[in-house]
Recover the amino acids of this structure.
């Protein structure tokens, strides 16, 4: 991996979007390495070499004698220009002559840049700008919609149940995830130069810890959504309240443990940079392992739930023809995919150096809209939520109508000891009693 680069394309939970100053980051790092090698070299050894150490702003060339040819790999920054089929970077070389170093042959552009079919070279900056713009819009949209959904679910007491409490925790995890992405981008990539490549402050490390915690929590609450629905379908007696406490501990507690362990290991064994790169695979599995485990278990639960739904829909007790059964099954399946995060399985277990650009668009670009989709499907389009909103709206319009009507009919009410609220409550009670008595009269005797 390289500073500020994509490095190995990890799962979206840990994917670090490269800075638009990718080249500056890599060049500065390679320049520092070259200077360290020059400082470690004994100056007396350079006397026998006609061509001394050379930093040409891209590659570090070691000393050579006249007639020698030095061959090196293309600079690391050209990794972004490689095609998926290329296994390794190309080679460039220089001759040591009586007059010093010769020019590189072949040229860096010819040896290191991948030719597109139309003969042009695609610069990655615009691609990264597009991806960053896409996921910024996605997370912003998700943030607004999720906050609105949270207000709705918290405002109406009739919506307070275990199922919606789990949805609310999932919404909070999506909100925290979006906020952490914006904070991370603001802290790591706000500078106009490449100084962010060498950040070692406590602030940026805390931001990365917070970012990983939010993403892990989001995955665990996706897992809990799947576990809750599966348990609801397979268990006859289901103590929801008692289970909810365990769900809360798993959803918020387990990510805390994982992130604390990861932070301690990074502090003692891999305290390099801002902790945004993950060169140590063993330490990284403390974060990556639980994410992949939650995805795998959720996928199994998803398959199990689909099987149960098929069995229930094909039951003789449920009416409807075969086409309506499959239509309901397809609708249920599509509703469960964003709730369980099943789309993450597309690239979850594939090699991390395969289809990097497709993974970026799919996991970062489209994945950023997941919170918006979940809020729409499980709040705004929820029949129970819509009924409650309509009921409140009707109640508000009726109360407003009576308030205006009473004000016009009895202007003295405003100065009397009886206020409009009391009058409306009496009218509401009276109308309710009349409606109940009429319903009882109309209903057949049993």
């Amino acid at each position: 991996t390289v500073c500020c680069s994509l490095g190995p394309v990890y799962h979206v939970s840990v994917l670090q979007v490269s800075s638009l100053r990718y080249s500056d980051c890599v060049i500065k790092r390679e320049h520092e390495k070259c200077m360290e090698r020059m400082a470690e070299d004994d100056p007396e050894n350079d006397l026998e070499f006609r061509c001394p150490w050379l930093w040409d702003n891209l590659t570090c060339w070691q000393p050579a004698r006249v007639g020698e040819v030095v061959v090196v790999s293309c600079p690391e920054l050209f990794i972004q220009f490689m095609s998926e089929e290329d296994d390794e970077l190309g080679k460039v070389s220089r001759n040591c002559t009586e007059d010093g170093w010769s020019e590189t042959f072949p040229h860096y552009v010819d040896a290191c840049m991948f030719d597109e079919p139309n003969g042009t070279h695609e610069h990655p900056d615009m691609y990264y700008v597009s991806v960053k713009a896409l996921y910024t819009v996605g997370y912003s949209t998700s943030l607004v919609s999720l906050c609105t959904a949270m207000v709705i679910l918290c405002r109406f007491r009739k919506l307070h149940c275990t199922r919606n409490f789990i949805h609310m925790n999932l919404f909070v995890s999506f909100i925290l995830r979006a906020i952490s992405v914006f904070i991370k981008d603001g802290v790591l990539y706000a500078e106009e130069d490449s100084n962010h490549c060498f950040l070692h402050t406590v602030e940026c490390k805390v931001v990365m810890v917070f970012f990983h915690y939010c993403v892990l929590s989001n995955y665990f609450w996706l897992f809990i959504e799947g576990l809750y629905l599966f348990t609801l379908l397979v268990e006859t007696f289901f103590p929801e309240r008692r289970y909810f406490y365990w769900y809360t501990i798993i959803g918020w507690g387990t990510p805390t443990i994982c992130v604390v362990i990861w932070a301690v290991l990074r502090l003692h064994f891999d305290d390099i940079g801002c902790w945004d790169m993950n060169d140590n695979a063993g330490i990284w599995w403390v974060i990556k392992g639980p994410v992949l485990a939650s995805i795998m278990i959720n996928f199994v639960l998803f398959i199990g739930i689909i099987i149960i739904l098929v069995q229930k829909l094909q039951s003789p007790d449920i009416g409807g023809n075969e086409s309506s059964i499959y239509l309901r099954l397809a609708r249920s399946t599509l509703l469960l995919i964003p709730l369980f995060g099943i789309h993450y399985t597309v690239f979850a277990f594939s090699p991390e150096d395969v289809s990097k650009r497709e993974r970026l668009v799919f996991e970062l670009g489209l994945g950023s809209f997941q919170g918006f989709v979940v809020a729409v499907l499980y709040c705004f389009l929820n029949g129970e939520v819509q009924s409650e909103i309509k009921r409140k709206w009707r109640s508000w319009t009726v109360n407003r109508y009576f308030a205006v009507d009473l004000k016009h009919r009895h202007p003295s009410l405003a100065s009397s000891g009886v206020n409009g609220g009391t009058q409306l409550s009496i009218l509401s009670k009276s109308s309710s009693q009349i409606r109940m008595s009429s319903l009882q009269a109309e209903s057949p005797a049993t």
In short: The first strand starts at residue 54 and ends at 55.
